[in-house]
Amino acid sequence: MEEEKQSIKNTSDNIEQEIKPANKKLTLFNFLLIIVIFIGLFIYMICVDGIDNIISVLQQADYIWVLGGLGCLLIYWICETLTLHFPLKKMYPNQPITNSIKVAMIGQLFNNITPFSSGGQPMQAYELTKTGKRVSDSLSAMAMKFIITQIALVVTTLIVILFEFDFFANLMQNFVWLAIVGFGINILAIILVIIAGVKKRAITIFTTPIIRFLGKIKILKHPDHTLEKLDKSIDNFRMQFLFMKDQKKMVLMMFLAAVVQSLSYYSITYMVYRAFGNVGISFWQIVPVQAFLLLLMTFIPTPGSGLGAEGGFLLLFSSIFKEGTINISILFWRMYTFYLPIIVGALFLIPTKNKERKGVNKENGKINN
């Protein structure tokens, strides 16, 4: 057992060499692409709805619900911070909440300006190194956050779907099988992650021959390198499970925060729905449709799922929004879930005097197995 733990620790230490700050040229390109998408959406709104209709809809909007959307976004950010802060605080007792807020918001920024949200975790780990955290510890905290958040997201969504299945199936009649397959894949991925954390060989016995076969037929250029990276990833996940097994209270707190986070994200769509005079559909009926849209967005290879998110919203929600309100609703929804996280996240990149390093004791940052 001690040899296994040492092997996992060595794997974790090796990960530190792979963390690099974001590529500036690529980040600039992504920002420009985001601006182009925003301008395109605005031009599309003007062409379809007309300036007069847009002004009329804005004048008639109920801004109590607009403020409610901002409140939901704030709750989302608070829960995002807590699900990261809890494991960091356990590893580093001197970890200040202010630093966790900063790291969480930097993650919001880079998740939204990189395809498949791939830039958030590396930049968060990079930011945490500035206050003396080991990259391996930072990645451990983020891996725990990811696992628990995904479980909370899927569990919450499935419970709501069970109660609102008739409405969901009727609204999604052209996509219901796609929704079932998509949610099934999410559930399977979570099960595989848990199995990987409990029994490594149960995963590698299937993945190794598949990867080697893909190498033989030239789909994978470097199968041995792929196997090595997979082995490191599985070892890293196992390290999180070893830690979480002894921290049940912390895991429960993270799970509850993640449930509230999921509901607050879904609430944003409902707030937008009500802001523009739409009635007749309940919050709980919005949830499964929004969850399916979120699932679709994970497969869109543009920063923040640009174009795909807007198109998906239009496709899924147009039948339940009043005529003339869907396009302005898309703009407000993207302001909440995309543009504001970028703007606010960017503010946390402004350099400040860093006094947090002084209070950091690196010995507190080692996970005691």
Characterize the structure shown.
Residues 1-18 and 356-369 have low confidence and may be disordered. The protein is mainly α. It has one domain. The chain has helices at 2-15, 24-49, 51-60, 63-91, 97-112, 120-129, 135-163, 165-171, 176-198, 200-216, 223-245, 248-275, 283-297, 308-317, 326-347. Helix 1 (2-15) crosses helix 11 (223-245), helix 4 (63-91) packs across helix 5 and helix 12 (248-275) packs across helix 15 (326-347). It is globular.
Give structural attributes:
about 0% strand
- Give the structural class: mainly alpha
Q: Describe the sheet with the most strands.
A: none
Q: What is the typical, i.e. mean, pLDDT? A: 84
* Count of structural domains: 1
Q: Could you give the order of the helices and strands?
A: HHHHHHHHHHHHHHH
Gyration radius, rounded: 22 Å
Q: Give a count of the beta strands, DSSP E runs of length 2 or more.
A: 0
Helix content: over 70%
Shape: globular
Quickly count the helices: 15
- Poorly predicted spans: 1-18, 356-369
Euclidean distance between termini CA atoms: 10 Å
Strand content: under 5%
Secondary structure elements and their pairing?
Layout: H1 2-15, H2 24-49, H3 51-60, H4 63-91, H5 97-112, H6 120-129, H7 135-163, H8 165-171, H9 176-198, H10 200-216, H11 223-245, H12 248-275, H13 283-297, H14 308-317, H15 326-347
Helix pairs in contact: 1-11, 2-3, 4-5, 4-7, 4-12, 5-6, 5-15, 6-7, 7-9, 7-11, 7-12, 7-13, 9-10, 9-11, 10-11, 12-13, 12-15, 13-14, 14-15
